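Quick one: structure for this chain?
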Amino acid sequence: MSRIAVVTSSPPMSEGGHIVIARALVQALRESGHEADIVLTPQNRFGRQASAYLATWFTDVGHTEGRPIDQVISLRYPSYAVRHERHVCWLNHTMREYYDQWEPFARQLSARGRLKEGVRRKLMHAADRYLLTRNVDTLFVQSRTIQKRLEMWPELRSTVLHPPAPQRAYRCDGYGDYIFWVSRLTPLKRADLLIEALATPEGAGLNAVIAGEGEDRPRLESLIKCHSLEDRVIMTGRLDDDTVLTHLARCRAVCFAPVQEDYGFVTVEAFASHKAVVTCIDSGGPAELVVDGANGFVCAPDARSLAVALRCLSEDASLAEQLGAAAFASGQKLNWPDTVRALTS
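Got it. Here's what it folds into:
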């Protein structure tokens, strides 16, 4: 079997979904008989991305402890800048501020800032185009959403390979009386849409638990107070893995409605817990996995539409169980042995 380096980057003191996927991939590789470990490449702060790309380019992933590394599997930018004779990239995202989030990002800048960041954006596009077409032997992307962002480069060929749920002790303890939301609390994750949904007439009486931390928490807490939802919406802060699994096991359904999410493993974790997922048509990765009316609901991105879908599940436990069973079957189609074979073949 091969010695494989799973290469990714991560901001200091940060625990994002890309790290969860990297650890799950390493575990799956080891279970398949490979020797594998994570290599974290430098991730410099905003404005110093060129330094991160250069540092990654010069990172030695050819040998360790006097023995060769047989293969590299890179994930998040700029990890695909590492050089190796057998380099597979399983891309979870490029720098979104310079891709699909450029317009909202640029609107916040001064004229001088837009000019400066526009130059950086062109340079990063040029670097990514070169690296993903010339530095990588095989390119997989973790969703069609990611694939679509790269359509500007016709010569770039990629294959969609959705990640399975991380290897955890998922279970179903029934279908409780609340909707569960778990994610980092940032505007792009759109937890405010769930809160607004519960404030509509269609959402009256529905309960929710929102788990996670992030810069958007104060605004979300103010929104809950503004709508007098303190008795129906609980914000737990960050939870450990066991507590997250308990909520997934006990909730009625999971709501996850971000904006153009790269992938969002929350969806497949809900599926593994026999829970339907409610998402939106513009949610990216989750909307690729949720089939409307079959294993969850895919709604218009507005509070009333979301509330109607949540009420359907909240008022009908048998429907929640039926869609949850279908969700579990959908999740079972994604598995780590097949994923490892694709990435190492």
